Amino acid sequence: MSTDKVRSTKLKFKGEKPKKKRKHDDDDETGRSSRRRKQDDDQEPEAWVFPDDPTQIRGPAFIFHPSDPSPICITFDSTRNRIVLHALDRDKTEDSGVNPSLLERVPTEVSQVWVITRVAGASTINLRTGVGEGKFLSCDKHGIVSADREARGPQEEWTPVILPDGMVAFQNIYEKYLGVDEAAGGVLQLRGDSEEVGFAERFWVKIQSHYKKEATEEEKKKKAGLIEEPSADEANVNRMYQAWGAGRSVVSKEDKKEIKRAKKEGRLAETMLDRRAKLKSDRFC
């Protein structure tokens, strides 16, 4: 790997403002050790960290899977306009010639980064490619995953669920999960038709530190009543037009509580589902 690629591990994106490094104690983090909290607080704004809550999954994100023999990350090839599962063991550091441990992995090029956006009042997210014209990750009713759409609709909505071990599962509008599947010839590909969350459906997700802190501060303000929550009508309108993802979870007992909590605010009314079913656009066939 060239020196330039090694330097690119701290990726910066258009519109980001430089922030000074701060140290503080984050007292309202739950479900994580104080050591993890302190490490996150000491990170520079562009450092890659793990989210503790689904609301923190925003901004540039690095999504990878502990596959064997090499972990892989979800990338987008803008030249061929297709999703590629890239073997991370190819990205050895030039100085040492060895691979970092799994949880120390960070993106080494922009094609390995997805930009995550969230509609106000919704628990669903959109994943857009960080290169090219910005295409959204989508999944049709047959479980075929692609990234070739410039507009977002129901099939581009995903519900992230942080599991007890810290990994993340992504559920689509068809109540199925994103997973890694082995196609003919041993080629790995993404599918979106898994009924349950198993090894293939668990991903590690890293976000940039300042986005995590931003989400944490917003949550504090909401609890303090400093940020007004969207009304039920406003939330339904948002979900109708931009964030339709929801559904029942079919996973192990250990994960059901986490999924129920994560999806509590994101379920659609039956009227929304009925309207979606009546749409005649080719996008929703």
From TrEMBL:
A GO-annotated cellular component: nucleolus
Keywords for this protein: Nucleus
GO molecular function, one term: actin filament binding
Superkingdom: Eukaryota
Record field: transmembrane: none
Family matches, as Pfam families: FRG1
Compartment(s) where it occurs, according to its Swiss-Prot or TrEMBL record: Nucleus, Nucleolus
Comp. bias intervals (Basic residues): 8-23
Disordered: annotated span: 1-53
Nucleus in keyword set: yes
Family: Belongs to the FRG1 family.
Protein's recorded name: Actin-crosslinking protein
Species per Swiss-Prot/TrEMBL record: Gloeophyllum trabeum (strain ATCC 11539 / FP-39264 / Madison 617)
High-level lineage: Eukaryota, Fungi, Dikarya, Basidiomycota, Agaricomycotina
